[in-house]
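dumping these here so i dont lose them again. two proteins, back to back, each one seq then structure tokens. dont judge the mess
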Amino acid sequence: VQLVESGGALVQAGGSLRLSCAGSGFHFDDYGIGWVRQAPGKEREGVSCISRSDGMTSYEAPVQGRFSISINNAKNTVYLQMDNLKPEETAVYYCRAIKGIDSCKFFSGTIDPDFGAWGQGTQVTVAS
């Protein structure tokens, strides 16, 4: 399993970014794929997840209504559209893939960094 993120940048508060996660070496249908972020000095926290097998998406409360996750099946790529970004959302954003039905549940609560496949991360900086 290989995940490669891109799209991180410096943006002003209220701005937008779209992150991409290109996956290879596995069948997307078998996995929940999503995003986890880690701000400086804080634990990793789940952001959003999508399951291609059933089309289910999930969002953590802080990003609901502002972030949108989607898949391009032909490109095996997952996107995270982030709108109305806030300075406190400055973090490294990681793409993560977990095998199994209902695996999006692992994008909530405590995030185990040793569980699932991870990309290298992409830096998002939101200036106030």
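---- next one ----
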Amino acid sequence: QVQLVESGGGLVQPGGSLRLSCVASGIRFRIYTMGWYRQAPGKQRELVARIVSLGTTNYGDFVKGRFTISRDNAKNTVYLQMNSLKPEDTAVYYCNGYFGVDYWGQGTQVTVSS
């Protein structure tokens, strides 16, 4: 059974930082493209960041150097370090694993507010 379990969300003030983690089980993690997506109320789900098996990354245009995605294949874990957070970053953040088939986590809420 495939499971992607996110953690690390919460409430943070503008300009603050959060680190999201996603632990995967039931997949050959090292061959999967892993990603983070987000969905704000009333908006479509959008790509935040993605990292392929060999480590190449790409980011949504709105990231502008504020976020960093990384992976630890030994721990079956993908991370998203988010700095300089803005209120518009408020959303549910979802972990995704892709290798011909998409798998999704349950999501973790990130709220940026003073």
